[in-house]
Amino acid sequence: MLEIEDLHAGYGETWVTHGLSLSVAPGRVLAVLGRNGVGKSTTLKAIMGLLGSVRGTIRFDGRPLLGLPPYRIATLGIAYVPETRDIFPSLTVRENLELAARRFGRPDGAWTLERVLDLFPRLRERLDNGGTQLSGGEQQMLAIARALLMNPRLLILDEPTEGLAPIVVQSIHAVLDGLRGEGLSMLLVEQNFGFATSLADEVRVMGRGTVVWAGSPADIRADTAVQAQWLGV
Ligand SMILES: Nc1ncnc2c1ncn2[C@@H]1O[C@H](COP(=O)(O)OP(=O)(O)OP(=O)(O)O)[C@@H](O)[C@H]1O
């Protein structure tokens, strides 16, 4: 479904990834782990068309993405929840959701406002609150809800648990696990080792701008040497 080959991505003259390759198969969850600064977020930004400096190949269902503007990539069926969450602070929760549904939703799509509110009852209670009045956890829920309203075939998440209380992490985990059960393909960048390995079908570890380890969640849980070398777990 998503194939990345020999990706070089960066900012201006500075290259952050160096020949990175990875792929996400339909209905599977791929977790990308790695220390701060190895280029995980940069890789996601490259997929979404948000970087100027990109070389290599990125294909979605066989279609090349490089050079397409971000909104085109979104309409092809990739929803992206950035680390910064990027909700609109001046809009209410309802307005944030309606905007996403209007811009990118599909009339025949499975995800409706009602359905995302069933998934995140907390957001239903906060519908008329402004974006800035939300807790970090609520903002993350809103960011994921907004992404689902696009009815994506691939959901990309950048560190969804960052800065969240354990109880909120648990509820985000339950939601993502449910989505996985429904067969939604996901690409998950995450620092929380337990969270990532319990959701993923496959794991890749990034170091120095490329993939340095590939295997299953069970493999990496058992491989304390890899954890120590590349993750500092
Ligand atoms: N907008 C930017 N302009 C210039 N350099 C950047 C920019 N964003 C990130 N970088 C640099 O790119 C490198 C990789 O950053 P990236 O955010 O991809 O890492 P990461 O693996 O996602 O780690 P983190 O968990 O810290 O986000 C870092 O050295 C970072 O300083």
List the helices and strands and how they pair.
Layout: E1 2-11, E2 14-24, E3 29-33, H1 40-47, E4 53-60, E5 63-64, H2 70-75, E6 78-81, H3 93-104, H4 113-119, H5 121-125, H6 136-148, E7 154-158, H7 166-181, E8 185-189, H8 193-199, E9 202-207, E10 210-215, H9 217-222, H10 224-231
Parallel strand pairs: 3-8, 3-9, 6-7, 7-8
Antiparallel strand pairs: 1-2, 1-4, 4-5, 9-10
Helix pairs in contact: 3-6
Bound molecules: adenosine-5'-triphosphate.
Summarize the structure.
The protein is of the alpha/beta class. Helix content is 38%, strand content 27%. It has a six-stranded mixed sheet, sandwiched between helices. It has a four-stranded antiparallel sheet with strand order 2-1-4-5, covered by helices on one side.
Walk me through this protein's architecture.
With 233 residues, the protein is an alpha/beta fold. The chain has a domain at 1-77 and 187-233: 3-Layer(aba) Sandwich (Rossmann fold). The chain has helices at residues 40-47, 70-75, 93-104, 113-119, 121-125, 136-148, 166-181, 193-199, 217-222, 224-231, and strands at residues 2-11, 14-24, 29-33, 53-60, 63-64, 78-81, 154-158, 185-189, 202-207, 210-215. The protein is globular and about 45 Å long. The model has no long low-confidence stretch (mean pLDDT 94). The structure holds adenosine-5'-triphosphate. Adenosine-5'-triphosphate (ATP) is lined by residues 11, 16, 34, 36-42. Adenosine-5'-triphosphate is lined by residues 11, 16, 34, 36-42.
CATH architecture of the domain at 1-77 and 187-233: 3-Layer(aba) Sandwich
State which percent range the strand residues make up.
25-35%
Structural class: alpha/beta
Assigned CATH superfamily of the domain at 1-77 and 187-233: P-loop containing nucleotide triphosphate hydrolases
Q: How many individual helices?
A: 10
CATH class descriptor name of the domain at 1-77 and 187-233 = Alpha Beta
Helix share of residues? 25-40%
What is the CATH fold-level name of the domain at 1-77 and 187-233?
A: Rossmann fold
Average pLDDT score = 94
